[in-house]
Amino acid sequence: MIEMTLNQFQCKQCGSCCKSDSMIPLTLDDIFRIADFLDLGPDEFMSRYCTEVSHGNSVPMPYLKRENGCPFLDDGLCSIHFVKPLLCKYMPSTMFGSLQYLRSKMPPSCAIHHMKSRVQVNDDDRIREKYMVSMILTSIYYSIHSTFIYEQAKPYIYRILLINRNRNSLFRDQSMVTT
User: Fold this and answer.
1) How many domains is the chain partitioned into structurally?
2) Is residue 10 part of a domain?
3) Is residue 114 part of a domain?
4) At a CB cut-off of 8 Å and minimum separation 6, what does 107 contact?
5) Does pTM surpass 0.70?
6) Domain limits at 159?
7) CB-based contacts of 82: which residues, under 8 Å, 6+ apart?
8) Angular region, 97: left φ>0, alpha ψ -120 to 50, beta rest
């Protein structure tokens, strides 16, 4: 148990990953949650803080604008911590690639570079499912509509939120049955 704890990744909250210019993909529910937290309409949030990028012939997807790092990094802290994008919330996780890939994407000052190869990261199946459901529904929305318009995105956002809420209650109910 002690060895497992020592091998777990522990974020040092240095903010290095927030200061990088790496692209952060957003899900529709990220857009909705962050906009609501900032007291902005989702369309206004998109125009201020997001860009839609297509890689090659792929469907465009929303990304957080990060010319000089994260626009929500304030005095070394995340000003939207409680509603930050799912990618930020779940990093580091090998659901986004191998541990070597993660290390290549994280700044050299990140603690992940100093961990043993057996490091345990956020690989909970529920986390993976939540993120994948959000990304799949976001991809479906963008494949049909090509750009974010809140009124058109509402049914997809509601589905994501509903699926996540129901899935959480299912897991909660399942653990009650086993105890």
Assistant:
1) 1
2) no
3) no
4) 16, 17, 19, 20
5) yes
6) 17-91+122-178
7) 37
8) left
Report how far residue 107's alpha carbon sits from residue 109's, in angstroms, rounded to the nearest whole number.
Answer: 5
* pLDDT tens-place string over residues 133-158: 899 999 999 999 999 999 999 999 99
CA separation for the pair 13, 11 (Å, rounded): 5
| SS3 annotation, the chain | CHHHHHCECCCCCCCHHHHCCCCEECCHHHHHHHHHHCCCCHHHHHHHHEEEECCCCCCCEEEECCECECCCEECCEECCHHHCCHHHHHCCCHHHCCHHHHHHHCCCCCHHHHCCCCCECCCCHHHHHHHHHHHHHHHHHHHHHCCCCHHHHHHHHHHHHHHHHHHHHHHHHHHHHHC
